[in-house]
From TrEMBL, chain B:
Pfam families reported for this sequence: Aldedh
Segments of this protein annotated with the region Disordered: 404-424
Residue numbers annotated as active site: E210, C245
Organism: Brachypodium distachyon
Full protein name: Aldehyde dehydrogenase
Domain of life: Eukaryota
GO BP, one annotated term: aldehyde metabolic process
Amino acid sequence: MGTMEEKPLLGLGKLVSSLGEVYKSGRTRDLSWRQSQLKGLIRLLTEKEEEILDVLHHDLGKHRTEAFRDEVGVLVKSVKNTLQNLQKWAAPEKAQTPLVSFPATALVVPEPLGVVLIFSCWNLPLGLALEPVSGALAAGNAVVLKPSELAPSTAAFLAANIPRYLDSEAVKVVQGGPEVGEQLMEHRWDKVLFTGSARVGRMIMTKAAKHLTPVALELGSKCPCIVDWLDSKRDSQVAVNRIAGAKWSTCAGQACIAIDYILVEEQFAPILIELLKSTLERFFTKPEYMARILNEKQFRRLGSLLESHKVARSVVHGGAMDPKTLIVEPTILLNPPLDSDIMTEEIFGPILPVITVRKIEDSIEFVNSKPKPLAIYAFTGNEKLKERIIKETSSGSVTFNDAIVQVYMYAPSCLSDRYGLESLPFGGIGQSGFGQYHGKYSFEMFSHKKAVLKRSFLIEFMFRYPPWDGSKLGMLRHVFRYDYVSLFLALLGLRRR
Amino acid sequence: MEDARSWAAELRGRFEEGLTRAAEWRAAQLRGLLRMATEMEAEMCDALHADLAKPRTEACLHEISLIKSSCLFALKNLKKWMKPQKVQAKLMTFPSAARITAEPLGVVLIISAWNYPLLLSLDPVIGALAAGNAVVLKPSEVAPATSSLLAELLPRFVDGRCVKVVQGGVPETTALLEQKWDKIFYTGNSQVGRIVMTAAAKHLTPVVLELGGKCPLVIDSTVDLHVAAKRIAAGKWGCNNGQACIAPDFIITTSSFAPKLIEELKKVLGKFYGKDPLGSADLSRIVNSNHFNRLKTLMDEEMVFEKIVFGGQMDAYQLKIAPTILLDVPLDSAIMREEIFGPFLPIITVDKINECFGLINSMSKPLAAYLFSRNSKLQDKFERSISAGGMLLNDTSIHVTNALPSRPDQGSFGTQGRPKECEI
């Protein structure tokens, strides 16, 4: 056969085929099975809450309150919502049929895709794993979850507990690093969801292409936050609270929808920066209120972003980094060079560049000069500006004046709020990815909407069939124009076809 | 390569200027396409006849009328589709308002197929323009007359600054695939589908793949046989002589019913195409000699040729093959492993009709699955157990004439394609 080096398959072939068998048996399609899995997830999240908060703290230094808010609380809410709506989402929808096909019924029937593979990321290691898993199960699929090895305690937790709370034959956790991910992608899946970097996203999609496996990619981006002058002092403070929460209270800025950088008019920049500084002082009275940087590699990456002389000079607050604790303190920059790495790459950390523009409207052009982001934020009372942002920019989503969940007075966040709005789809565009999920969109991401048309033998129109002649063509024209009267008359021979 | 890059850049510039976004512009393009389909009907039928010997009625029924309906449907619904949808905001975020706003992706590349070269080019173009995108269309070079016609007509009827037709074969397509697009819509075979998706992966471009499949048709004895036979014949041979992704590929029926079905099909075929089907103007030809030879090879396989129960006539000069029915070819023969895409109709018999499920589910998921039966239990089981892009009971093909998600979501999945989510 040749001298091909056999890569160790890690028993994955068997795993994939056993899941295929389970799916074929039909068990995952039953509504009652799906409901039991969702209930199992809720029990896992509630019964094991303490352990979950421990592992998230272990992997990321995430404060228990932040972890609860962003990964447990929001997920329980989401799964309960899915459970409540499952029957409705899974029900066939009627579609219209044209009169000429009477009698006929047309339905769009959601059905599961089969066996799906979900890769989750390290920064929200529980949420980014279990939210899509809940959607895949709700849609009736068998699932393989590959959690990120960079959050090892959470990965181990998932591997230990998923078999306990869910159907262990239909939902599998596969642990390991990039080589395991590559091995998994050698197989065919009915869908793959990948959350992570564009570089790996490309590799996933290229491998998926060999099997024509459909993919959804949730990638990163630089999410801009446009800050306009707000008339009232109170509004300004609220805005700054929300900005601070969105940057530093979400895994220390290591989140795909964290605010990456700010755009503000030059005259207001000093005020904004002062407000940010004072808010930071109020919020982060203890270092443990902010998550740490994931690991040394990420820590060094962030350090290198601040290395260049011109960037270092632009630091107006913070900048301290402790390699022992992997803590980078909340840092604000004012106008670092636009061609520096910190302004061309996704920061994914607690460093916030503030870029000034002459007029706030210039922000639009600035945002458009960069790849399309996952989210655009804008704090403004100016309705015209809002409309322009919506019309002239493109992003996964736009949030104005970011309604932030005030769970606790000192640590608001826009993240769980966005997750909380289950009726909005979440996903990227352009370089930030494709495919949307959350809530009903998670269900749909892992479903196929099958078109089913049922006809009767009762009524037959001969003009559908050859041999062709001009009269048949004439009648077909009437059909396509929904001109039933002319058709009827033609059929009766009372009209020239 | 240079051309492809400059076209992509030019269209991107136009898109970024905002030319394609206004509802008026979009509606004007749709009206332009509608006018084109109306005023140029004769030219279109001629091109389709040159490329495929497609009978005029088929050309009008399956391509031109559908293009017109698609334009009208889009025009009628454009405002509604463009309107932002309000969504429920939760108590947790009170006070807030949330909505979903549709926006164009940007510049999209549409690569179409040769068998319905007008429809499979223009239908996705209609969708792309209605959504406010700039478009590059690459029609199939295997249908050259239609490709030239599209290249000539589109600039006359739509805004040539934002809609380009690029003609050519593999080198031109490869050059286009090297560029970055905001979406690629490909209709064709799985092999090229893989190439398209691999190229798209480099730029993280979402793709929609409309591929092929072996569409099974199950029929039991509860049917009105005469009507069923006509609908089956129309769906198989009345659609480009079997060269259609949704044509029934093969039939499964009981061994007791098969002889009756075959007799009725023979009668119907006689009515449709006469005693000399190769001479009938109502039968499309095979598109080119490559495909003719491919089909001939399928037929020539030992154990297949001897299973012909009707038809089998071929004319290499005219590239015509007559409607052909085969009974119980071996399941591992090439004709049962590959998508036929031609006028051969194998009938596979089973003892009990329920055995069809095992057989169908042992194959890749098809684009369409058909069941002819009045047995409601069988219908329910079919709907539940068979996974296919679309499903039709007691008829063939017409589910794509409806405004069901049979277009553009007519996608199936499995090795046969991917669903729209790649709206992906």
